[in-house]
Amino acid sequence: MEEIAWLNEVEMRAWRGMLSAHAQLYGKLDEELVAEHGITFAEYEVLVHTSEGEDGSIRMSALADAALVSRSGLTRRVQHLVAQGYLERRRCKEDKRGTFAVLTSSGWTKLIEASKTHIRGVREHMMSKLTAQETEELANALEKMLK
Amino acid sequence: MEEIAWLNEVEMRAWRGMLSAHAQLYGKLDEELVAEHGITFAEYEVLVHTSEGEDGSIRMSALADAALVSRSGLTRRVQHLVAQGYLERRRCKEDKRGTFAVLTSSGWTKLIEASKTHIRGVREHMMSKLTAQETEELANALEKMLK
DNA sequence: AGGATATAGTTGCAAGTGCAATCAAATTTG
DNA sequence: CAAATTTGATTGCACTTGCAACTATATCCT
Known about the structure:
Distance between the termini of chain A: 38 Å
CATH class of chain A: Mainly Alpha
CATH topology of chain A: Arc Repressor Mutant, subunit A
Radius of gyration of chain A: 19 Å
Strand order of the largest sheet of chain A: 1-3-2
Helix content of chain A: 55-70%
Oligomer: homodimer
CATH superfamily of chain A: Winged helix-like DNA-binding domain superfamily/Winged helix DNA-binding domain
């Protein structure tokens, strides 16, 4: 079996760690939200980013960027959340091409409830495993990767 | 707009960083492999983990675990790689329920070529942004998350 | 031994996704 | 100002995925 030129051991651990830690964390958080609130993590993210917009509303394209999904993907996620009663769509008056997603009051309630599960999950599956310093080092490294 | 109870600032940066850094890195590595070698990152991972098995072969279930995919998902990825000529399937003699995925010589060649692109990508999009110490801190934090 | 249970793997199916094409509205440009 | 281009968003389509059901083989247990 031929040997493949590779990364050094620490680089390898960092890179493999990105894949595994992300997959494991994402999987658990998704599972818990579905079990306790009937929404996926992807849907929860849409609610979160909508809530962070002005008056709990945000343009579709901005929401797609924030939620790390394609525009077509977002259109359908929002459709689904509208069908569930958590979002409304509102045409944009200044730019008639545009559409806002707007949290309904039912959406606010759902978000607040689901966020308890979510935050508990992040603490349990991520923060509880790390010291404050490690958390800071992790945040630092991840942000440098994004530049 | 109501305020949602949340994580502290550092925790938030670490958690958001996991999502964004993973998405950005995965996206770039996938794009480069597709452009230069016509295989997805997911397929590349299957080739890598197969190559690491004995004689470039590995049981389907072990491969599914290593490649972070469901067994049904793996069955189809392997089907696709077999169709492309990079893998063969071999029945397991000791356990007739089992199947091995085995790298073909064309698969070895593909893997070796693709790994150059992959490693270059990991260096360029990840390691080049980090000092050796930051890489180590990152690896450390990610591994602790997995425990 | 042999029936019950567990394990390896595949398949049908439904759901989610992105790309390319499309439509409508806004903006640029000649 | 009208034509050309750009931008915001949605839709058709193909592809990937996981779950549940299923088949085949292996193991457990009395």
